[in-house]
Amino acid sequence: MDHRHRPVLPRPHRPLPRRVPAVITVRTVDYHTAGEPFRIVDCARDGMPPVPGDSVAERCATVIGPGGSGTAPRRGALDDVRRLLVQEPRGHAGMYGGFVVPADDDGAHFGVLFWHKDGYSTACGHGTMALGVWAVDTGRVAAPDDGDAPVRIDVPSGRVTATVHRGGGRTTGVTFRNVPARVGARKVPVATSFGLAEVDIAHAGACYAAVRARDLGLDVTRAALPALVRAGQEIRAALATHPATWHPDGPLLSGVYGVILHEELPDTPFGPHQRNVTVFADGQIDRSPCGSGTSARLALLAEDGRLGPGEDLLHESVTGTVFTGRMLDGGVTEVTGTAHRTGEHAFVADPHDALGTGFLL
Fold first, then answer.
1. What CA–CA distance (Å, rounded) separates 147 from 284?
2. pLDDT at residue 23 in the model
3. Coil, strand or helix: which one is 289?
4. Residue 306's CB: how many other CB atoms inside 10 A?
5. CB neighbours of 50 closer than 8 A, spacing ≥ 6?
6. Tens of pLDDT along 13-54?
7. Which end of the chain is more exposed for a tag (fewer CB within 10 A), N or C?
8. 0.90 cut: is pTM over it?
9. Contact 312, 326 (CB under 8 A)
10. Which of 43, 124, 207, 290 is catalytic?
């Protein structure tokens, strides 16, 4: 028998991923902010399925779906696009991105739905910074050769601003101004397989739990990443029903999104210096110092009296990249860093491809 023309299919140990119903082409522009990727899909330009809702928060709830959660959304046409872009072979378990959607009103330039390997998030500082630079790079928001260009963006947690800094006709940096941050609880005891941890909780567009890595016998290094991820997952699970993780605006903003494991470094002349790794969603690692997570750390440091007016937090990631953060009046925070374009892509999904929307390892 001639087997040359028989289809060759994988032999998986689990059900095949969901196939796409027709050929899909998705165009993206990719950036990184301090090493963390951000894949941008302009839904209006690229003909993505419209998302019902009168606000970005409502649209986020729509894509999550009834009965779903931020880390376990229901399947749908737009969520298939998310899976296609974040999963292998087109993405990877560390991929992050956003769907550009209409703003809530004329006060913002556009809105965005943030996504990661497990689903959706209500805040993303590094993504906001990348979007600001993208908006200026593409001419969507006019910017001077020398000076600043504010880009106002509606996200599920509210309205934020990415101020793009320009000099000599090029972008030199970007500052993310977040929604107000607040402390939720201090020294919450959490039992982990690494020992008992005292966890601080803060809300900064999303809920973050912060713990000193050394309290768990860990340091913030690449070699320790598997243990840091496990500790982060255990802490997130242990706090699932803790009342301090709930937000008065409802379940969309409630529950621990990220766990920040941090360590002290020598202070700079301008203020404290820390290194962290943020484990978010279901075990994803932020390659940057985490923009919204930095906002949460700023609120905690300010309450401790360690960050006063005019002082900055130099916040370092596990990859060695840095953000600079400062506390303003009313719990408002600013985080400054850099974002750079890494590529433009036209991803194709073939309905005859048995891998469908892909897989994660």
1. 36
2. 78
3. coil
4. 13
5. 43
6. 455 567 777 778 999 999 999 999 999 999 998 888 889 999
7. N
8. yes
9. yes
10. 124
